[in-house]
Each structure stands twice: as C-alpha cells, then as structure tokens.
Protein 1
Amino acid sequence: MSTAQPAFPAGAYVVRQGVRHLLVLLAALLLCTAFVVAFLTGTASAWTDAAALVFEAGLLAACGRELTRAIRRDVVFAVHPDGVYFGSGEVKENVPWGRICAVEFFREIETHYRSSASIYQCVGVRAPGTRQLPRAGNGPAARPQTKQEAQFYVDAGRPDLVVGADGTVRYAYRRMVGWRVNRAALAAAVRGYAPAVPVIAGHSYPPPVSVTQVRAVRRNRADRRA
C-alpha cells in the first residue's frame, strides 16, 4: 500500500472534489451566523455567546478547507491500472489490485441521539482475511469486532455478520462526503483493470439486526443458562 498519488492514465476512473459538502457547510454557516447575531443582540450569557462564536469559527475554517479542495479539484477516489486510490480525508492511500478481492459499496450509520442519525454512503475495498485490523484512514465500519459482538450475531442466527465470516475484511474505505461515485463507470473500470474483482453491495454498519433476531439472542442465551 502506497500513500503517494499515482499518475492516472487516460481511461482511469477519477473522481475529484466537488462543491456539495461546501454548500452544506455554507448553509450551516449562514444559520449559525443568524443564531449568533440573534444571541449577541439579545440577553444571552457571555458563555453562550463565546460558544456560538467558537462554533462559527470552526465552520469558517471548515468552509475554507472545502473551498481550497474544490478549487484545486483534488482527486478523492480513483480506479486505475495499479489499483484503487483513496484521496479523501487526512490519510491518502493506494491499494494495489493484488490485495483487493472486492470493491464494496455500503452505508455507514452514525447515531447521535435516540432519534437522530447521519447516514453516509461509502465506497471501499475488501481484502482476504478473517480478523479485522485497525488502519489509519478508516472509520468505525472497519474497526475490529469484539468477541461479545461476534457472539451476538451468532446467537441472532446471523453468523454471516461476523467479521471475516466470508474470508474477507474491510481493508480501506471512505465516506463519500462532498463527492459521489458513478457506480456504472466504476464497475466498468474495475472490469477493465481487474475483471476477477467483483463490485458488491456490502452490509451496512452497524450490521442490521431485526427484532426477531434480538429475541432469538435472548432465547438462545436463556437456553444455554438452563
């Protein structure tokens, strides 16, 4: 695995940074500015005013970073003759075809509160293996699974959700924030450079478990205690 950006020949599938995330941040900045103005002209406490200003400063910095990336048209993802390149985020990496056994699309769900969650569309590559190892650049969807989590899925009747059950693990992935992949174009590029590598729809993270399966967990554990 290399962190250097390779040279992409004509015909490679290349995705560059767009303005989608920048527009979202600008909208948030406008709302935050209106909030700050309302509080500064009202009777808010000094602590509230300071917190709002710090938050707005963070949004300004994020807007600046996204604007720079959009102007530079940074390469955030690419499928090319030597492998798959991940250029988004702080960690860049180029994964060679020899390590890849599948290119994967999946959803990552990040829960904030009981009734609030963010859903991210992700693209990544899988590699042969039965044990997930943490790697820089990846998010929670590629973290190692505990023995307790693995046993939960076995008890739920979903052993296929145990990491490495199919002999593969998530080797590298990125959330598609501010950019999107054309699945048909990606699949065509993969067929051209590595026809033996499938493009698959992977399990969402956290893996989906139904109410019926949760009941199966309780029943199986109760039977073992009996």
Protein 2
Amino acid sequence: MNYYNEIDPFAAQWLRNLIKVGLIPDGYVDERAIQDVEAEDLEKYTQCHFFAGIAGWSYALELAGWPEDQQVWTGSPPCQPFSSAGKRKGMNDDRHLWPHFFSLIRECQPPVIFGEQVATAIGDSWFDYLQADLEAEGYATGMAVLPACSVNAPHRRNRLWFVAYSIWNQQSWEKSCSRKTRRVGRKHEPVSWDRTWQSALSEFRALDDGIPRSVAGTDAARNAIVPQVAAEIIKTYMDYKDEIST
C-alpha cells in the first residue's frame, strides 16, 4: 500500500484515476498539507510520495525496476521559492516546505529518499541545508544536476536530483532485486507510454488556451518531473547500493 500526499485537488484526483486504471500502485491519496501530516499516519505504507503531483516519482520507480515491497520515500518540494521565474525569497518563503518534509523523515527514518528541486536552488544553498539536516540524522547524500534533454526530451529543464540513504537503516535486498529479475512495466496498461515527446507536447500546448477547466491540467503536467531522468538516478543508486553501503 502506497501513500501519495498532494494538496492540489486536480492533481489528487488525477492520482486516484491513475490508481483506478492500474497505472500506479494502489494507495491512499492524502490532500492535507504536509504540515498537517503526522509520523503515525505513515506507519503502514511501503512507498510514500510527498508533493506527489501526477505520480512522476511513482512511475520513475517502476521504470527503474524498484521492487514494490522495498521501502522508499520521494519528494519534490515546491520550487517557487527558488525558481528564476519567482520572487526568489528562498528559505524566507512560506512555500519553503523542506523543514516539514525533513521533520517527517527524522521521525520515520525511511531507508532511502529520492527527491528533486530546480537547479537554481543551488545558489540559495538549498542542498547545503538539506545535506546538513540529513547527515545529522545518519543519512549519506548525493546530488546531480541533470537536464530533461539528457533523456532526449526537446528542452533543457535543468533539475537538481538528490538521493539520501540511511547508513543505519539499510534493508536487506532479496534476489528479486537483481537487475535480471526486476519487473518493469505493468501487465495492463491502457495508455501507451512510448509516444514521442513532440506528440505529447503538442497536446499540452493545445490545453494551454486559457480555458479554466484546462489550466489545472496544463499546470499539473508542466510542474511534473521528467520520470525518465528520475529513473536514471534510481537505477544508478540500485546498481551501486552495495558498494556505497560499505
């Protein structure tokens, strides 16, 4: 059972629709603000996705072949405080939600965390604070800035990708975790994922017409991560997990 935390009602319903048709693992969609989530609310879940959007991280885990029974948390905290398109208030912005995300991490101690932020956050020392917080709790961390075009998308979209793993709480990985036996893709997939970037972008552009009912859908897609890039981060961690844990 997975947990999806998403405050935007349109995106939350999108998540429920994806669950209903079997495109993402079954789970509970929580529309509360992360500030209202308590550690005990998360005890029964295997995967926890915060700022879940339209399930980009969930899809990335599947692309990478992450076993569904292995604990993991993901989160892409709001980028507005650090985006070059915003007012750049940084950590003084009310939408700087890392402290609340970290509070749950500190209490629950998930073994692995994957996350993402706009690359410009580096200039505001965002990752420095994140790294200091996590390492104080026994996590080793790493980050890389990768663009969407690194997976042949026709735009740059630089993002800071990070991984943190607990050096005290590493789970044992069964044989099912080997690259040869990982299951990638679901048996029943009503929507094709192998379309070209150009055809997908053309549909999103068509939605961006100012009609109120379309704006929410356009924004949800625009704010989503590129799952194919996230999948490469996850696969790299999976490939080198045993080496970096020693």
Protein 3
Amino acid sequence: MKKLLFAGAVLLLALPLFAQIQGDYIESRSTDVFTGQCYANGEMGLTGKEAILGWRVSKGSWNGVTLDGLSIVAAVRAKATLGDPYGNPYPAKAVLIVDDQATPQQREALVAFAQHMGGRLLDTVERVLVAPVALEMSAAHHGSALLRAGQFATIQTRAITPNDHNCGNDATFYPPLTPTAHSMAAVALTDRYDGPGLGENWNSHDRRSAFVGTFAVDAHAMAVNHSEAGE
C-alpha cells in the first residue's frame, strides 16, 4: 500500500502544475448585455434567445489532444431569454462549427472542450459543421474583434463609448454565457448566423450585445476531478 501511495505521489509531482488551455473568447446575443435594468426587463421573454459563442485556443490541450491555434464556434437557440432568472432556456439547440484546420481527433477534442465550457447550453447539438474559422482580437483597439466561421457566422465588435449610453444607469446587465478569465461588454457591429439546424437565421447590427475576452481552464484539474467522480 505504501509503495502504491509513493508511486502515486511521484506521478503527481511529474505532472505540470498548470496544465492550462487558454485563448480568446467572443460572444454575441440577440439582446443587449450592456443596458439599463428597465430596458432589460422590457426585453426579457421577447429577445435574447439566440447567441453565438467562439473560442480560439492560443495554447493548450483537451483530453490529451493539442489544440494550439484552433477555433470552434457555437450558434445557439434557446427557449427563453438567456440569463433571465425567471425563464427556462433549456433544452437549447446548438450548431457547432469546427475549424477545418483541425484533424479528426482535434475536432472531437474541440467539440468536447466547447461542450464543457458551454454546459447545458450545448447539451443538444443538432449539427457539427466544418469550415474555416478565424477569430482576431485587435491589439490596437480594445474591444474590437472579428469572428468568421465560414459562410455560417460572423461577429464584428467595437468598444462601448459614452455615446452608447441610452440612460443614466447603463451597465453590464448579463454576465458572459461561459467562464472567462477576463471579459468586457462590446457593441456588435455585426451578429449574423446563416446556417442549418436551428430553424432560424439572424442578422443584426449596432447592438450592445457582445462580449470579448479571454479564457483559461486548468485542464489537468478538470481531468482529476472527472476521474475522482467516476470512482
């Protein structure tokens, strides 16, 4: 027994302390995320049932598969306003758009990663599409980003300015739909989905409906937790 414990301790010491997967994140929804409470309450149940989420892995792996430089996008249509504490958006429908630069093994890992990050929002995947996916964050202009997922989805953002305040108490009303290391609300100059699987396409402009930021997940810690849960 002592030998087994010693061997386990040696194995743990041999593992990296920070086995992270990290990168850039973007999100846009069919309702304002930066708004006043009165506006948000007036839109609940009417808007905010659709969303596009995108991740670009700068470095890291998932399920033992290296994903450096690869991206995945999820388009979602829910049953209620996402983030409404009194609504039930589940089950939601999702379409995943996987980077065409990924190998079949990497595509499986990207899908598993996105479903982990999205949780219940991505439980029901209607389609998995393969297309060129690019997510670019502007270093010169904070809050500016561009996501393109083939012909299916586009998000283009800019930073929120004082001119975007509609009332005196505008603030970030909704948090991002997935875990982030850092995020900021932004204006979606374009928020477009034109693809199959959701029963609806959309194309909106100039709405305070986006988030841009970064994510960082301790993939090793997640693997240990999953292993312990299965014992």
Protein 4
Amino acid sequence: MDQTQYHVVLEGRKVGPYDRRTVVGMRIKKTLTSDHVLIGTDGSQLTVGELIGQPRAFNPERSSVSIVQATYTAAVVALDARLIGIPAFKGEAEARVQGGVLRIAGRRRSGLGWKEDRFKLPFADVVHARVRGTQVDLWMRAPQKGPLQRMTLEMFTPEAAGELVDWLPSATPWTGDPLGHAPSVSDTRTMWMAAAGVAGVAIVVVILFALLQRRVI
C-alpha cells in the first residue's frame, strides 16, 4: 500500500501531511479541487488531479479474466437504496471496462474494518446515462421490471466522465425529471400517505362546517 504523505498548499501555506486516501476523500467531498498543489515528503510536487490519475492496484478476487479495454479512477457517490448486490464503496475505486462489462472495485466497510470488493455491471443493463461535469449518472434495469435504479460515479475529470459513457452503446440520454429520480416504492408510499392526510383534513373540515350549520339553524 502506498504510504507516501502529501502536504496540501492552501493560500501559500502547507497543510497536512495526508495520505493518498485522505486526499482523494477530500477531493470527493469537494474540499479540494483537482488543481490544488501537493508536495510529497520526498519534495516531489504534483496536483490533486495528477495524484488521482496515477494507477492504483485493486486486488479483489476475480471470477474470470478478460481483456481490459480501459481503466479509470472513480468513486461511487450516490447509490439507490434499492440496489441489491452492489457494495457500498467508500472513497476511491477503480472503474474498469472489460468485455462488455463495467467492473468497479474498491473498499467497503466490513465489521470494524475494511474489505476489498467488486461488482460487475453488464453494459446491456444500463438503460440511460448522463454526464454532469465530472460525474456520471447511470440508470439500470431493476429486477421484475421495477423502477429504474440509479448510481452516480465521480470520475474526477469531464474527459473521463465522457469516455465512460462512450463505452455504453445501449445507454440513451436521461429524459426524466431534472433531479434524476425515478419514483421508488417509498416515494409512492409517501405520496399516498400525503394524499390520505389531505383527505382526512378535508373530511374534518366538512364535519365541522356541518356542525356549525346546525347550530346556526
């Protein structure tokens, strides 16, 4: 594991040091931008974007071997709660294009520690895709024809975001609501509860009005 430490240059002052994982985490949270300058403990100087662009080894167990066509540094920043089987990755991950599949490998919580994990998303399961700056929204088919499920990847550069979407031949542009939500079961339940609440208030108002009318008469 890379143990190199970096100082961040902020307004002419050096802050830190931080390891790569912390720097990437601050970039994901937008505390840092790709243009911020880092100074390594060995005196080397590079930007946050250059650090993130350096390849990193992810070694979760593989079930098959296929030709790797492209590799990107990424982060899963939003995940539909209904998605089953996709690990809740934290921090930096690797997005790898290989044989009609998008393979994402990274770290997830496991008890009190961390575990390297991965999942594979067939291109054919991606229905819609959208690029928003450095982020990519993917809408995927749900089991049993349920509502589409969404995942958002931070790709760190607009170029990488655009390239990733170019690898998805069957994905069409998203034309749903501007926020990118597909109604979920919980959303539908909430709407019904709200409607029931409004109906209940209306009934109470009608009853009160009827009682007042009787008193007037």
